[in-house]
Specification:
Layout lengths: L6 H10 L5 H44 L4 H13 L4 H6 L1 H14 L5 H10 L22 E6 L4 E9 L3 E6 L13 E8 L3 E8 L2 E5 L2 E7 L5 E4 L5 E3 L3 E8 L2 E13 L2 E6 L14 E8 L2 E14 L4 E7 L4 H24 L2
Helix pairs in contact: 3-5
């Protein structure tokens, strides 16, 4: 007899010696198959539960490091699951965080707006870089100027007067609001972010309020923002090494990284040297970039505009500070050379 019989061969062999009637034999076979199916279902279910348990443990650990309270952790976990979002990404990135807390605000009439603002602050999502595209109208800065256009093509100049987690309030800053404009009517707001682009959104007016001589137009928040990017300095993708220095509490630390792209205005680069010092880098911090382009050395102070935390790398986007004309022209010349090289290479492969 062969060793290592399969389950099916074992069952087949057993039925050959079974003396019972045919109905009993068929029943045993069916029960055996059902037992195998149940075994695989239970195995899959247990694996899923173990993965979720490990995910929850990692989520709780990460959230604790960010000093989130038990209630804050519970809200983010619960609503991330409702949206079928990865709860870890909700802690790491602003876009999924804003989507999740918006669901919490919209679906819960007793939602705690102060708690949401507290979470946003603890996770460093409170400060919005003027160079990073807006995710939601909640990110529009107070006193942002704009132009409001109504369905009859009448327009007024406006500025963002106030905002909370549910609504934004735009102040009419010149002229008067046409008397024909009523709540429920669609209105379009267009505004310019100097270092970013031109934005617009179109929503029904929630309310029109009077505060003394002020006319305030109330809108619900939205993620539906149209953006037209402003022209920026020429940028080229490169893969070159650099060192960068970060000073914290008077202590200077130097790290290694590699460029992703560069222009005469700034650069983007990544490092795999992940440690506690680099985790303290924040938007607006100054770091010193040390690198060579065409064997010419550069040492440039730059300001952090964007921080992208990846599982095995940290990527930073920076803007150069106070470049002298010679340095600026040298970088522009390098960028132009690399663009010509890339164009020739592309043409050769067409």
């Amino acid at each position: 007899m062969q060793e290592n019989l399969s389950s099916f061969d074992t069952l087949k062999l057993a039925t050959q010696y079974w003396q019972g009637d045919q109905t009993t034999t068929v029943l045993i076979v069916i029960l055996f198959i059902l037992a195998i199916i149940l075994f695989f279902i239970m195995g899959t279910w247990l694996q899923k539960k173990m993965r979720e348990r490990n995910l929850k443990h990692y989520f709780d650990t990460y959230a604790k490091e960010q000093e989130l309270t038990d209630k804050e952790k519970e809200i983010l976990w619960e609503y991330a699951k409702k949206m079928e979002r990865d709860p870890i990404l909700v802690l790491e990135f602003k876009a999924p965080f804003e989507k999740v807390v918006d669901l919490y605000i919209q679906s819960n009439p007793d939602a705690d707006e102060n708690l949401v603002r507290d979470m946003r602050k603890k996770l460093d999502f409170e400060i919005v870089s003027p160079y990073i595209p807006l995710i939601t109208t909640k990110d529009i800065e107070i006193f942002q100027n704009g132009r409001m256009v109504f369905s009859n093509n009448q327009t007024v100049n406006v500025a963002l007067y106030d905002k909370d987690e549910r609504y934004m309030y735009w102040l009419v800053i010149d002229g008067t609001l046409p008397s024909s404009i009523q709540p429920g009517e669609q209105a379009k707001v267009i505004f310019l972010r100097q270092e970013d682009g031109i934005y617009s959104f179109e929503l029904p007016i929630a309310d029109i309020m009077k505060e003394g001589n002020k006319t305030i137009i109330k809108f619900p928040h939205t993620f539906e923002l149209n953006r037209t990017q402003r022209r920026e300095t020429p940028r080229v993708k490169i893969d070159l090494p650099l060192n960068f220095a970060y000073t914290k509490n008077g202590k200077k630390s130097i790290f290694e990284g590699r460029f992703i792209d560069i222009s005469s205005g700034g650069a983007r680069f990544c490092t795999t040297e992940l440690n506690d010092i680099l985790r303290k880098i924040r938007f607006g911090d100054t770091i010193e970039l040390i690198f060579n382009l065409d064997d010419y050395p550069f040492n440039i102070n730059s300001k952090v505009l964007e921080i992208d935390k990846k599982p095995k790398a940290l990527c930073l986007r920076t803007i150069f500070e106070e470049l002298d004309e010679h340095t600026k022209e040298s970088i522009i010349e390098f960028v132009q050379k690399e663009q010509i090289k890339a164009a020739k290479l592309k043409k050769e492969h067409e």
